[in-house]
């Protein structure tokens, strides 16, 4: 049976405000379980708001003018010699150059190791009965298709508001998040970039606190007064 | 880079006959990095392998690259001859290159970030592309850092193009991909053998070094498989200069993993990954 999830409103939701002031370019709420994609112009700042708390926003980034140049988790981690994304982390392409920079971050650390959930990996992690659960890879493929992207363009992604510790013996996995309603991360585009976000539909692990909630995407232009 | 002592002007090449003789006289020059054909003739055939089963034998220059499409059940041994090689590997299904190495799933599904014996190299499609079936390199491998880039190597070493002595791993993978009919889109995050990295308690990436001269790692292809291999310095190698050495590769006809192998049942997640793989091939009539 296909698992569905009711879009809902809750008293604890906090839609917060843009992290960086400036003219509003875009303001969109990604409903639970849905995908979103859009081009963020160089210099603009994308604020992602964790409206309901501990909601993973799976994210891929491409050079808007050349999709072969795309986010590389490995190039990003090597350059900072650190396994987690924090305030100031530069999100780099597979050629090593900056795509976006984290200019604001209200959770301890952000993940780029854990990857996206998929119907296929759900069968490995939780059993074959989960094959028909909706997943981030589905959102990536559908949003990507709007821009000519396919499976060959999916790479290790960022999971905003998701918590993936690595223990001394190499054990790693997704545990309870460290975020809360209204927490934000803000990304400045270092060039024109295509951003693809899956509001993670996963209900078999704690990445969404087993309760998918909305994400708010706000893009502001700091060079223009609001 | 291997020095080809046969290269350069050796005799007169003014006429076609002289030029042909000169060209033909260059063969039979043995250098450190070269393929061995037929593979059974490899001077370095592994002692535990019947040479008649070899399907691939070569020494890859450092820096250098190789690529091969192999049958299901092919066992591939990589050897870090001097302790200075680093094998950056991408594997893709030869049936559908859109199914390729997914480093995140390779770490997340087994709940284990560090590669070692029995570790599956998973695709994004819930299947096992290849299994690390033996590790004689002390776990000195890395799935966090990937390859160096052209711009990065120009900055650190002064050059990073594929033909230079300080080639970037990514430039080499781009060439390996092109030879298999693939493009930049087909190069996802890669895994690195023979150079180790660990995550410290504070999240920093720590270098753990090499597995020593003669370190080996064995992979088994669990489906028809395309391998892209760049032998290039690891991005976190602290050596002052560009560190590289020859990488030896031997492949032979063996068997894909089966339920009798300990890694098949090591964790429930892996068992289901092998089951998915077997069903995928069963439907296509591939045994
Ligand atoms: Zn997800």
Plain-language structure description:
The complex is a heterodimer of chains A (226) and B (287). With 226 residues, chain A is mainly beta. Chain A has 3 helices and 11 strands; from the N terminus they run E-E-E-E-E-H-E-E-H-H-E-E-E-E. Chain A has helices spanning 73-80, 119-126, 136-145, and strands spanning 23-30, 35-40, 45-50, 57-63, 66-70, 90-92, 98-105, 158-160, 183-189, 193-199, 215-221. Chain B has one domain. The longest helix of chain B is centred in the C-terminal third of the chain and has 16 residues, at 268-283. The model of chain B has no long low-confidence stretch (mean pLDDT 96). The interface between A and B is large, with 47 and 50 residues. Bound molecules: zinc ion.
Briefly, what is this?
Chain A has 226 residues and is mainly beta.
What layout of secondary structure does this protein have?
The complex is a heterodimer of chains A (about 230) and B (about 290).
Chain A: E1 23-30, E2 35-40, E3 45-50, E4 57-63, E5 66-70, H1 73-80, E6 90-92, E7 98-105, H2 119-126, H3 136-145, E8 158-160, E9 183-189, E10 193-199, E11 215-221
Antiparallel strand pairs in A: 1-11, 2-10, 3-9, 3-11, 4-5, 4-8, 4-10, 6-7, 7-9
Chain B: H1 16-24, E1 54-60, E2 64-70, E3 74-80, E4 87-93, H2 103-108, E5 120-122, E6 128-136, E7 141-142, H3 150-157, H4 169-179, E8 191-193, E9 195-199, E10 205-210, E11 215-221, E12 225-231, E13 247-253, H5 268-283
Antiparallel strand pairs in B: 1-13, 2-12, 3-11, 3-13, 4-8, 4-12, 5-6, 6-11, 7-8, 9-10
The site of zinc ion (ZN) has 8 residues of chain A, from loops.
